[in-house]
Write a structure and sequence with these properties.
- With about 220 residues, the protein is of the alpha+beta class.
- It has one domain: 2-Layer Sandwich (Alpha-D-Glucose-1,6-Bisphosphate, Chain A, domain 4), CATH 3.30.530.20.
- Helices cover about 30% and strands about 40% of the residues.
- It has 4 helices and 10 strands, in the order αβββααβββββββα.
- A hairpin with a 7-residue loop joins strand 5 and strand 6 (about 110-120).
- Helix 2 packs across helix 4.
- Pfam families: START (PF01852).
């Protein structure tokens, strides 16, 4: 049995954000497009922003969203930014290695992090919550020419939108290090997050087909 990675309170807190995002204490509106609203909070110690995202995936269920997000093999099929991605168990905890393709003339980044999915029944109904955070477990060696991101945290919650779709909340922060101009980071946040959710929505639609092919291939 795997060792518990995150505390119950952490899951409870992020579930509350789906129902009522906590935007006091310096959070500011950043952008809105394609049913996605983004707020951000400036971190003085790093000069970077934390982000909170509220969005809707209109025609896919929260169960499928959670399954797609957790399925690393499928992620390699639909996410063009994935260079290498795998999971292994270290000291009873699931540790993920994620090598991300960055734009031309920029060094790729990689991440080593823990991740956990739990399901809850809350005021707004049944939810699927995922927490992820950088870890040093596994002693994964760094690669030449690839910058290791060791300050990464992400939280996601999926719930029914009351119709045929999914209401989603995401908290995201990482420090990509290196000399990346601020305007590129801002552009990535403004376009990358809605773009990711759009790509994920398309992937959710095709997930039953992928599962069927995988089942056939392994039977």
């Amino acid at each position: 049995m795997a060792v518990v990675t995150f505390e119950d309170q952490e899951f409870e807190n992020v579930c509350k954000e789906l129902q009522s995002p906590q935007l006091d204490g310096g959070w500011e509106f950043f952008t809105e497009s394609h049913d996605v609203q983004i707020h951000r909070l400036y971190r003085e110690e790093s000069g970077l922003y934390e982000y909170k995202v509220l969005g809707t995936l209109s025609d896919v269920s929260p169960q499928v969203c959670a399954d797609v997000y957790m399925d690393l093999e499928y992620r390699k099929q639909w996410d063009s930014y994935v260079n290498e991605l795998y999971e292994r168990e270290v000291e009873g905890k699931k540790v993920i290695y994620w090598h991300v393709n960055f734009p031309m003339f920029m060094s790729n980044r990689d991440y080593v992090y823990m991740r956990e999915l739990r399901e809850f029944d809350v005021d707004c109904g049944h939810v699927w919550a995922v927490l992820a955070q950088s870890t040093t477990l596994g002693d994964v060696p760094e690669k030449d020419g690839v910058i290791r991101v060791d300050d990464y945290k992400c939280s996601l919650v999926f719930a029914s939108d009351g119709k045929q779709g999914t209401k989603a909340f995401m908290y995201y922060y990482d420090n990509p290090k290196g000399m990346i101009p601020t305007f590129i980071i801002n552009w990535a946040a403004k376009t990358g997050v809605p773009g990711f959710l759009t790509s994920m929505q398309k992937a959710c639609r095709k997930y039953p087909e992928f599962c069927s092919k995988r089942k056939t291939a392994t039977s």
